[in-house]
Specification:
Elements lengths: L6 E6 L15 H12 L8 E4 L6 H5 L3 E2 L3 H4 L2 H18 L5 E6 L9 E2 L10 H13 L4 E5 L6 H7 L5 E8 L23 E6 L5 H19 L3 E6 L16 H11 L3 E4 L9 H12 L21 H19 L6 H7 L2 E10 L4 E10 L8 E9 L4 E9 L5 H17 L4 E6 L4 E6 L4 E4 L1
Parallel strand pairs: 1-2, 1-4, 3-5, 4-10, 6-7, 6-9, 7-8, 9-10, 14-15
Antiparallel strand pairs: 11-12, 12-13, 13-14, 15-16, 16-17
């Protein structure tokens, strides 16, 4: 068997990282899975190749995030290893050593946004987004699709790529009116330069395998066929499972495995899933077997009985309506008259209020996107964060896109230098992804640094 026929796996349970000893996001999430996979002999199968994780660098993180005050203040070594493990799988895939790969890691990441003031939704940094930007910078990949299968809306991943036409972000999740983070509605469809490259699929509580596969076959697969990505990433949250304590969905291990078999992701990176004993070992095993092209029909949860979940006609109708709306949105993705918008103004602006539920931080953010005729345009992000302990941070970040033009790079850098000289902000950042250089300035210390 050639290495290119193999499925790569990397495990990182993060024994030394937990929000609290009894928090749902703890090391047992992966220990039960690891034990079952080893007991079943899956790691000894010729189609499986195990890899060891490595540390991501601060630069890998700064390429994606604006961490306040600095990267080192928002991460632990566990975060570096979790992100680095995803990069190990990415490197193995690009080297042709494996056909696909699954990074079973924690801490998770898909609620971590472009600007990071702390932990929200159990996430500090976004493992998938860091990996995607790494693949683009190191290997020159142009178009990547991210399919988020977590029960919670992947609001952080959405925020990072909201204005990027080369990244397709699709998230299906339990309706945000019924579950954290309260977002992920169909009208959140991407900025003016990336309209409909964000597709949110809010599903009614109680959605089963049937509803999940309807969404996949009627919407996700046709959109992927149109988009033609160089790579498909599965942001593999597993808390849609019927036993998960934090949500209200009815998906089974078989449903997840079959979904994965049809989606055919190149890389999967673990996200949420908190039914530690009753779901995760079975769902992970099913996904691994599906990615390896092996029989998963005997993977069954102890509590599952055939036919125990049916989808009501009311929920079927609601799902069909959402899918129809999003198909229409996708078909109109190129209708936005960006040239007319540029004639009216130089910048697109949006304001956001962000709550960090884990760390008790309220953030107020204004994001401006340069409407450039020659590239994706640079971002200017003003952010004020108020911590529960009285700490306040007022920051300005300038960020250039990977495909940025010389004029945008120079204009963004000029704004950075002006902000540094005026010393109006606590911290100023220049995220220069064109040159792959990431700078920051502290007003209190009067010092500049580079990640």
């Amino acid at each position: 068997m050639n290495n290119s026929d193999k499925t790569g796996l990397v495990f990182f349970p993060a024994f030394d990282w937990a929000i609290s000893p009894t928090h749902p996001e703890r090391e047992e999430r992966l220990l039960y899975t690891r034990d079952q996979i080893f007991e079943e002999g899956i790691m000894d199968l010729p189609r499986i190749k195990e890899y060891k994780p490595r540390l991501a660098t601060f630069k890998d993180i700064a390429r994606t995030h604006i961490c306040v005050p600095q990267v080192k203040d928002q991460i632990t070594q566990a975060h570096l290893v979790a992100a680095g493990a995803a990069l190990v799988i990415a490197d193995a895939l690009m080297a042709g050593e494996i056909r696909n790969g699954f990074a079973l890691v924690r801490p998770p990441g898909h609620h971590a946004m472009k600007v990071v003031h702390g932990n929200r939704g159990f996430c500090n940094i976004n493992n998938e987004a860091i990996m995607v930007d790494y693949l683009r910078k190191k290997y020159g990949l142009k178009k990547i699709a991210i399919i988020d299968t977590d029960v919670h809306h992947g609001d952080g991943t959405q925020d990072i790529f909201y204005h990027d036409p080369d990244i397709l972000f699709v998230s299906f999740h339990q309706d945000g009116r019924t579950l954290y983070p309260g977002s992920g509605f169909t009208n959140e469809a991407g900025g003016p330069t990336a309209f409909a490259r964000t597709l949110n699929i809010p599903l009614p509580p109680g959605t089963s395998d049937e509803g999940l596969h309807y969404v996949l076959e009627k919407l996700i697969l046709p959109v992927l066929d149109d988009f033609k990505p160089d790579l498909i990433v599965n942001s593999a949250g597993q808390d849609n499972h019927f036993t998960d304590p934090l949500a209200n969905m009815k998906v089974t291990a078989q449903g997840y495995a079959s979904f994965n078999e049809k989606l055919k992701p190149d890389i999967a990176v673990l996200e949420g899933g908190y039914a530690i004993e009753s779901a995760l070992p079975y769902v992970n095993t099913g996904i691994i077997l599906a990615m390896a092209g092996m029989d998963y029909s005997n993977v069954r949860e102890p509590e599952y009985r055939p036919g125990m979940f049916t989808l009501s006609q009311e929920k079927k109708t609601r799902i069909e309506e959402v899918v129809a709306e999003l198909i229409s949105l996708w078909e109109k993705r190129d209708d936005l008259a960006i040239e007319a918008l540029r004639e009216k103004k130089d910048f697109f602006e949006r304001k956001k209020t962000i709550f960090y539920d884990t760390d008790g931080i309220n953030e107020y953010q204004t994001e401006k996107l340069k409407l450039c005729p020659d590239c994706g345009g640079y971002h200017a992000i003003s952010s004020q964060a108020f911590h529960h302990n009285g700490i306040e941070h007022n920051i300005l970040a300038l960020s250039t896109p990977f495909n940025g033009c010389h004029e945008c790079r120079e204009e963004a850098f000029e704004h950075y230098e002006i902000a540094v000289s005026r010393k109006m902000h606590d911290f100023v950042y220049f995220q220069d992804r064109i040159s792959d250089v990431y700078r920051g300035f502290s007003r209190e210390k009067g010092q500049e640094w580079e990640e």
